[in-house]
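Okay, any thoughts on this one?
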Amino acid sequence: MSTKETYKASFDELQQIITEMESGEIGVDELASKVKRASVLIQKCKEILSKTEVDVQKILDGLEEN
């Protein structure tokens, strides 16, 4: 994956990992790497959401000033 992952791409991959885990498709040998990847994706999604929240708040603050 590229360094500049989008929220949708990260979220979709996370959903896929969750689906695989719930269905039992992930073997014991893969489990640790999938959980590690999921934690990276969760962090990425949180970062994107936080940045978006800050950006939206700045826009709203700018509208209130006008």
Observations:
- The helical segments are 7-23, 28-65.
